[in-house]
Amino acid sequence: MCLAQENKKSVAIIGCGAAGLAALKHFTAEGSMIKCVSFEQTDNVGGTWVYTDRVGKDKYGLPVHSSMYKSLRTNLPKEIMELPGFPHKGPEDKSYVAANEMLKYLEDYADHFDLIKHIKFHHHVKEVSPLEGNRWRVTVIDLQENNVEIFEFDGVVICIGNYSNPAIPEVPGIEKFRGMKIHSHDYRDSSVFKDKSTVVIGCGPSGLDISFDIAKVAEKVYLSHHNQRVKNMKFPSNMVQKVDIKEVVENGIVFQDGSYQQVDSILYCTGYNYKYPFLSPECGIRVENNHVTPLFKHIVNIEHPTMYFIGIPTNTAGFCMMDLQVQFAKTFLEGQVKLPSKEEMIEDTRLDVESRLASGMRPKELHMMGRRSKDYYDSLAALSGLESVSPVVLQIYFDGIDRFMCDFSHFREDKYKLLDKDHYMVKFPNEEE
Ligand code: FAD
User: Which pTM value belongs to this model?
Assistant: First the structure.
């Protein structure tokens, strides 16, 4: 089947969470020179924000995508978790909203821009491989009919999210442990931890949030980590900070300071790996030490520059970034502006990696943006002739992260409701790193 029509470029969008919806909105906007279809393996838009009780496999035998848990409230204000052009109409009295309120926002976005008609639900992308002339063959399984369908496209935009493939570190002695072991991907609620002792490994946003959730019912939560920023945080009385694990034994943990704790379960909050199982080797994309390569600006497949990845960078204002990345991809897919040469893209990427490593980032952190966000957004805008993300968004993002680190127990309270986004004080760009 061929979707090329009226000289428009045919584009496959893979995945229909926030990134896929933003892509659909821009690609189907009036005047767009793109004709697109979105393949979504589940029966809903929203991706991460769709809660399911299921863990392991879904009803079609595919790995469950969402890592959402029942109690989750966003860790950023909803005012910067909106896609440009469609304000969050969620509860007026609070900024930090529940997962179902985020999902409602995304469903409303899809309705408002009339996007559902472009989505093939229950369609799992099985394989993508390059054809002559920078075109693509996309093999899709219609899960309801159990049919294989093959399409050809001029471009592919990958919007499958980054939080579905658990990263589980090697822990000495782990095979001896008799209690329960789970990863945060499979965490749904705290009930199985009631009156039990648990060690939580890792204290990124999920590790902290889930530890606090479990501590409401658990006997004890031992939070094992090496994050200096968390050391002085205030914790509930049944939560104890521990250093990294030295060894696991049958019924407990020996920590690197020599102390021992008996525990009933181990909860890995050790993050996720980027994974693109449907890309054939000919696509040229590798994931090395959790770095997706070779990508120009964390978006463009340098080997085949009609393939774009949306949403890879972390530690940034994700929703605005994804919207900008989508528009960036659109500019080049439509041919309005030409990408730099392959050599220039390789060199730009090499310099980016070099400067990140020189600043002390670990190789597995090469997609983290943090204080580099503004330069990143500005560089996308400059290359494609688009408007960059407003500095106020980043200011709210950084202030939100500070509040989160300083006052984890209370940062979502109503007193922190963002009052006036339009008059928020922007300290950028003079602020120190
Ligand atoms: P996703 O939402 O993951 O959507 C990807 C879609 O692709 C899914 O619908 C999936 O079914 C589909 N898909 C995957 N593979 C295929 C395939 N082969 N074929 C067809 N379809 C496929 N961000 C924030 O800014 N603030 C927060 O507070 C926040 N909290 C979070 C809490 C948790 C527990 C998690 C896991 C993430 C959180 N995030 C948060 C990050 C969140 O993932 C992003 O905000 C955003 O929603 C990601 O959107 P996405 O479209 O890139 O990916």
Answer: 0.95
Please write the tens of the pLDDT for every residue from 100-125: 999 999 999 999 999 999 999 999 99
Separation between Cα atoms, residue 347 and residue 265, nearest integer Å? 47
Atom of ligand 1 nearest to the CA of 69: 34
User: Helix and strand tally (H, E) in the chain?
Assistant: 7, 20
Residue (of 226, 225, 196, 199) closest to 211 by Cα position: 199
Closest ligand 1 atom number to CA of residue 272: 36
Residue 46 CA, ligand 1 centroid: distance in Å: 7
Q: Write out pLDDT tens, residues 57-104.
A: 999 999 999 999 999 999 999 989 999 999 998 777 788 999 999 999
Q: How many CA atoms lie within 13 A of 64 on its CB side?
A: 20
Burial 35-48 (b: 16+ CB within 10 A, else e): bbbbbbbbebbbbb
Rounded to an integer, what distance in angstroms lies between the CA atom of residue 330 and that of residue 324? Answer: 10
Instruction: Name which residue sits closest to atom 45 of ligand 1, judged by CA.
Output: 318
